[in-house]
Amino acid sequence: MNPQDTRALIVGITGASGAPYARRLLHVLAAEDVPLHVVASAAARQVYSLEIGRPLEEDLPDQAVLHDERDLAAPVASGSFPARGMVIVPCTMGTLAAVAHGISGNLLHRAADVCLKERRRLVVVPRETPLHRIHLENMLAVTDAGGIVLPAMPGFYHRPHTVDELVDFVVARVLDQFGIAQNLIPPWTGDFSS
Ligand SMILES: Cc1cc2nc3c(=O)[nH]c(=O)nc-3n(C[C@H](O)[C@H](O)[C@H](O)COP(=O)(O)O)c2cc1C
């Protein structure tokens, strides 16, 4: 992978429920030849194995570079690494809090902090319900810092029949945020008749 490739996307995976979102996003991006740097928390690896049925490291697209969350010397820890941005999918309330308060306690938090300071796109896909005031305030803080909060909230107006279609709805919204063309979910046409 060319280290100067500005198309690179950092994909943070945390220990929130929703590993299928991360899995689908990574495989769609790989099909689009997007260079991928994956930072997974320890909790993410546990929840991924539980929800997908195989370890994260055995399920990544070939081109994805997997970083340990403890590796604070990884390229993505520096603003000099020319990534196009980062998505944290799914994002726990703990990681949301760290990002909201600029606490770079691990590589995932640091990479997100770097995206904010470099004014690069940071998309956070939180998964928790219900939400208390601190969760909501942290989402506002991330928004105020320039990040985009994109909750894992699939719509139903495309009449999904499968879980995969619900997953695709959220993944499509993430791709839209990075200007990556997608045909997972057709755009709403305003036609109520179909
Ligand atoms: C099966 C499972 C599902 C979880 N789902 C969520 C969730 O949806 N949202 C959340 O904020 N935390 C969830 N957690 C808790 C986090 O994994 C936990 O707070 C962890 O410390 C988060 O660390 P991380 O942010 O570094 O990944 C879940 C834990 C487990 C074991």
UniProtKB/TrEMBL annotation:
Gene3D superfamilies reported in the protein's UniProt record: Flavin prenyltransferase-like
Limits of the Flavoprotein domain: 9-178
Entry annotated with the keyword Transferase: yes
Coiled coil spans: none
UniProt-listed InterPro entries: Flavin_trans-like (IPR036551), Flavoprotein (IPR003382), UbiX-like (IPR004507)
UniProt: FMN binding residues: G15, A16, S17, S41, T92, M93, G94, T95, R127
Job of this protein: Flavin prenyltransferase that catalyzes the synthesis of the prenylated FMN cofactor (prenyl-FMN) for 4-hydroxy-3-polyprenylbenzoic acid decarboxylase UbiD. The prenyltransferase is metal-independent and links a dimethylallyl moiety from dimethylallyl monophosphate (DMAP) to the flavin N5 and C6 atoms of FMN.
Similarity comment: Belongs to the UbiX/PAD1 family.
Full protein name: Flavin prenyltransferase UbiX
Organism: Desulfoglaeba alkanexedens ALDC
Native organism taxonomy: Bacteria, Pseudomonadati, Thermodesulfobacteriota, Syntrophobacteria, Syntrophobacterales
Gene symbol of the encoding locus: ubiX
